[in-house]
Amino acid sequence: MKKNLLLIIIVICMLFTVPLLYYKKPKPVAEPCEILITIEGVAKSIPLEHYLIGVVAAEMPASFHPAALQAQAIAARTYVIRNTDYGKKAIKPTTAHQVFIDEKARQQKWLTAFAQYESKITEAVKTTTGQIILYKEEPISAMFHASSNGVTESAENYGGQDIPYLQSVASPEENSETVKMTVNELNAKLQTNWTQEDFLNLQLERNSSGRVQTVKGKKNFSGREFRELLQLRSTDFMMMEEGNDIVIATKGYGHGVGMSQYGANELANNDATAQQILTHYYPQTTIGNVCTKK
Fold first, then answer.
1. Which residues of the chain have pLDDT under 70?
2. Model confidence over 90-135: pLDDT tens digits?
3. DSSP secondary-structure letter at 89?
4. What is the DSSP string of 165-209?
5. Is the Cα torsion angle 10, 11, 16, 22 positive or negative in sign?
6. Which PANTHER family match (predicted)?
7. What pLDDT shows up at residue 33?
8. Dihedral sign from CA coordinates of 136, 147, 50, 101
9. Contact, 103 vs 157, CB < 8 A?
10. Distance between CA 33 and CA 47 in Å, rounded?
11. Counting beta carbons within 10 angstroms of the beta carbon of residue 210, is it exposed (0 to 12), middle (13 to 18) or buried (19 or more)?
12. Res 271: pLDDT
């Protein structure tokens, strides 16, 4: 009886001790490093990843493909990290930097779709937690815009500086708009005193991306200046006569540099991943982690 009891005790001990010989403690889950973002006009700083939910919600339609939303989250994270020096400086919640809307504004924007879209965008941010775009191991100037004219604009054409990862690349979306203005409206915005014929005789000198680089006439403008004064969607435009008025047709929406948001969505709908989208619009870059660069 004692032998049987001893045997039972030995077996029980083996049942508890043998598994311990093969047990390996699981690796701890990596947590994102603590970076707080200060938004101009907002009293309290908020965590980086929470901030990004408000940016992606404001900057890209929530109906877009998840891969496009992920690409936007990574680009927006890179932008805020570079422009705030990892949270040391404040950022504007407007197009001067990148637009941000809080949860209350998101509820007002999406109404009955709030729960669906909030979850979708939160997942896009969560899936890409900490990811940023790097060139030579440094966060890039992750410029983005709504849509292109078939190709993106280069940084050199836009601002005069040649940046290897902000080159002109093909973009698959189509986006155009036509606006009509009277001659008086045009003169008021441009501070000119021209006739309809003067406007129709303007020479539109285009650059390598097909956008207007210079407008030449009785007074010269850069394409950017002309666009801004007339509040046109892009610098790819042409002018036509319609009765006594001038019709201006534009292609694309925004400055055209970096990632096209509508182009990103088209690529995503054709099975491109977020990383493939980003390496297309920002050539020669890699994806890194904000925590390792802090």
1. 1-32, 293-294
2. 999 999 999 999 999 999 999 999 999 999 999 999 999 999 999 9
3. S
4. TS---B-----EEEEEE-HHHHHHHHT----HHHHHT-EEEE-TT
5. positive
6. AMIDASE ENHANCER, N-ACETYLMURAMOYL-L-ALANINE AMIDASE-RELATED
7. 84
8. positive
9. no
10. 10
11. middle
12. 98
